[in-house]
Amino acid sequence: MVRFTVLASGSKGNSTVVSGGRTRILIDAGLSCRETFRRMKLAGEDPETLDAIIVTHEHQDHVNGLAVTARKLGIPAYMTEPTHRAWMRWLTPRRQMTYAQWLEQCRQQAAERQAEADGEAMEGEPDEPEPEGRELPEITAAAEPEDGPAKPPSRKEDPTWLPAVEYFTAGSTFRIGDIDLSAFTIPHDAADPVGFVLRAEGVRLGFATDLGYMPPNVKAQLKGVDLLLLESNHDLEMLRDGPYPWSVKQRVLSRVGHLSNDAAAEFLCTGYDGQAAYVILAHLSESNNLPELARVAADRALSGRASLLANKLLVASQHVPLESITF
Ligand SMILES: [Zn+2]
Ligand SMILES: [Zn+2]
Question: What residues does the ion ligand 2 have nearby, CB within 5 Å?
């Protein structure tokens, strides 16, 4: 059985569970580990059975719980190398500091390491806090603090540590257990963003959010899918009149921003082959969209095509898991 459950979708966190055969994977880990587990259990999925986490791109709403979830389960994270590098840079921004500040930081780190070493013998592994873009400036050992050379960072000090990282490249096909994945490039303002087509047990699932427009390569990839998860991010008028500063509006509207309701509808009307049993509208903006507006635009586009009545239209939510879809 193939099972597809959107745990969350939107600018505050994205995560979807896909299982096929004996394999279960998480696409993006944008929720905290705790919330991911809570929603998986709500949806009848056992977090302990996850085999891997697949990352579309390094934006926070897709990776916020990545490290903690991967560590807790001891499972690999799959992403492209540029995405991995960008994610590591995000967690370890470089910062200029004076020698006095650097020295003070070394003292504090040494004290923390000592406290940790003292505490570790006593207790087991504590629940790790979520990384929140905390600043861990890179320090070169140009000078040594008074109490000797700095030790290399431990796993817990290194926010970028993952049990395993597997690279794939955009445009390639790879396999995780019983699930085949094709990764394709999407136009979005991240290092190397991708969408996916997943195949298991003869079922094809298309996954495309966070894209400024629908280029030919994405349209081609989404042909013949049994389930289509498609971004329907904003209503153009709501975005135009909404609260975002102009620079952010420009970004969302750009060719590397997000797909509007109209653009999603345009694809469903003219670029889509109508093969999917389910169409899920995803990554709706809470500030610049309403589920009903997205649904009406897509519904109109689909119902204009009499042959596509089998397409069941669903709208993914930020706050609750979408009902699981099985094949
Ligand atoms: Zn993004
Ligand atoms: Zn996003």
Answer: 61, 210
Of the candidates 269, 238, 255, 288, which has an alpha carbon nearest to the alpha carbon of residue 279? Answer: 269
Q: Each residue of 194-238: pLDDT tens digit?
A: 999 999 999 999 999 999 999 999 999 999 999 999 999 999 999
For the record, the structure tokens of 257 come out as 């921003």
Q: How far apart are CA 127 and CA 125, in angstroms?
A: 7
pLDDT digits (tens, 9 = 90+) for 92-106: 866 667 777 778 878
Q: How far apart are CA 115 and CA 118, in angstroms?
A: 5
Distance 44 CA to ligand 2 centre (A): 25
Ligand 2 centre distance from Cα of residue 153 (Å):
31
DSSP string, 232-299: --B-HHHHHHSSS-HHHHHHHHSTTS--BHHHHHHIIIII-----SEEEEE---SSS--HHHHHHHHH
d(CA 96, CA 122): 37
pLDDT of 127 over the 60 cut: no
In this structure, what token pair is assigned to residue 35?
A: 């919330």
Query: Cβ–Cβ contacts within 10 Å for residue 86, how many?
Result: 20
CATH architecture of the domain formed by 3-89+163-326: 4-Layer Sandwich (3.60)
Residue 286 has pLDDT above 60, yes or no: yes
